[in-house]
Amino acid sequence: PTRLTVDALSRAFGGRQVVADVSLSIEAGEVMCLLGPSGCGKSTTLRMIAGVERPDQGQIRIDGVPVFGAGPTLPPEARGVGLMFQDFALFPHLTVAGNVAFGLKGDSAAKTRRVGELLEKVNLCGFAQKHPHELSGGEQQRVALARALAPRPRVMLMDEPFSGLDNRLRDGVRDATLALLKEEGAAVLLVTHEPDEAMRMADEIALMRAGEIVQRGAPYNIYNAPVDRAAAAFFSDINVIRGVSKGALTATPFGDFLTPGHADGTPVDIIIRPQHLKIDFDRAGRGPNPTVQDGTPARGTVARARFLGRESLVDFAMADGGLVLTASVPGVFLPKPGTALWLMIRRDR
Ligand code: ADP
C-alpha cells in the first residue's frame, strides 16, 4: 500500500477554514514538498498528520492502516512518524549519542549500533560525547536529523527544517539531508515557503494557497505549466503581455497566441518567465526571419542590464507601445542601454 495517504483533511480555527479538503499521497522513498506562502496552512496540515493537531474532517492512513478518521485515532507515538522542526529542539543535557538514541527501543547493543550507524551517515562520528551547545548550527541540524531517522520512521515530517541555518551552509545541508532521506527510504513531507528549496528537494511539489492544494506535480511541470498567474509568479518574476482576444487568438509582439473560448474583446494576459525569453544573437543585424523555430521574433531596445551571478537580467523596451519585458540570459550579458536586439519565446516552454 501507499506509505502515506491523506484524504479530504480539513481544519478550522475560530470559524476560519485554515486547511480545506487537502488530499495527498506519498510513496516510500518519495519526497513531497508542501509549498506556499506563510499562513496558508502548511504546518497545520503537517501537524494533523503527525497527530498533534486534530482534524475536523478527513482520513489519514499510513501503510494502509487508518491512523485518523476511519477507526481509532492513533496517538503521535504510535503512528511511526519522525518529526523535524525549524528549532531542532535537541535535549541540552543529553550528549549527541544520547539525543540520537532517545527514541530508540530494544537492547542497548542494538541501540548503540544504530546510533553509531547514523552518526557516521551524518558525518559526526567524533561528536558522540559532545553536548549540543558545543556544536555549530549545521552540526545540531545533523544531530536532529539523525535523531528523527534513528527509529526508522515510515513517514518523515519536516517543517522548515533548514530555515535556522546560515545561507552559506544551507544548500550543502539540503543536499546531504536529501541523500540521507533517500537512503533511509521514508516517505517525506517537507513544508517550506521557499520555491528554490522545493525545486531542489522535491520529487513532487504540492502548491498550497489559502488552505487548499492548487497544483501538484514534478518541479519541472509546476515551473513550466503553472495552473494560474499566481502560481507562475510564486516561482519567479514574470512578464505580462496584455492583449485582447479576437476569434481564437490574442495578438502579441511575438505573434498570435491560441486563446480559444473567449468572446472577442476579452482582455487576455500572456505570462512569460524571463527564463523563457531568449535573445536571438544570430539575427542581430539580419532582420527577422519568419521560419525560425522559436517563433516570431520581436525587436526591443535594452533599457537596463544587471548581472546576478548565475544569470543576467536584461530589461527591454519593446518596439510597440509601452511594453517592457525582462529576459534572463545565463552567465554574463551586459549590453549597453539603447542596444537594439531581437527577442523570442522559447517554443519548448
Ligand atoms: P503555514 O505553515 O503555511 O505558515 P499555519 O498552518 O501555521 O500556516 O497557519 C495557518 C493559519 O492558521 C494561520 O493564519 C495561523 O495563524 C492559523 N492558526 C494556526 N494554528 C492556530 C491555532 N492553534 N489557533 C488559531 N489559529 C491558528
Structural account:
With 349 residues, the chain is of the alpha+beta class. Helices cover 23% and strands 34% of the residues. The protein has helices at residues 42-50, 96-101, 108-121, 137-149, 167-184, 195-201, 219-224, 229-235; strands spanning 4-13, 16-26, 31-35, 57-62, 65-68, 81-84, 155-159, 187-192, 204-209, 212-217, 239-246, 249-252, 255-258, 267-272, 277-279, 298-307, 311-318, 324-330, 340-345. Helix 3 (108-121) packs across helix 4 (137-149). The two termini are 36 Å apart. Residues 13, 18, 36, 38-44 line the site of adenosine-5'-diphosphate (ADP). Adenosine-5'-diphosphate binds at residues 13, 18, 36, 38-44.
Please write out the topology.
Layout: E1 4-13, E2 16-26, E3 31-35, H1 42-50, E4 57-62, E5 65-68, E6 81-84, H2 96-101, H3 108-121, H4 137-149, E7 155-159, H5 167-184, E8 187-192, H6 195-201, E9 204-209, E10 212-217, H7 219-224, H8 229-235, E11 239-246, E12 249-252, E13 255-258, E14 267-272, E15 277-279, E16 298-307, E17 311-318, E18 324-330, E19 340-345
Parallel strand pairs: 3-8, 3-9, 6-7, 7-8
Antiparallel strand pairs: 1-2, 1-4, 4-5, 9-10, 11-12, 11-14, 12-13, 15-19, 16-17, 16-19, 17-18
Adenosine-5'-diphosphate binds at residues 13, 18, 36, 38-44.
Organism: Tabrizicola oligotrophica
GO molecular function: ABC-type ferric iron transporter activity; ATP binding; ATP hydrolysis activity
Protein name: ABC transporter ATP-binding protein
Number of strands: 19
Sheet with most strands:
6 strands, mixed
How does the overall form come out from the CA principal axes? globular
* Ligands: adenosine-5'-diphosphate
CATH class value of the largest domain: Alpha Beta
SSE class: alpha+beta
Could you state the CATH homologous superfamily of the largest domain? P-loop containing nucleotide triphosphate hydrolases
How many domains? The number is 2
Please name the CATH topology of the largest domain: Rossmann fold
What letter string, H or E per element, gives the SSE order? EEEHEEEHHHEHEHEEHHEEEEEEEEE
Note poorly predicted spans: none
The value of Rg in angstroms is 25 Å
N-to-C terminal Cα separation, in Å? 36 Å
How much is the average pLDDT?
A: 92
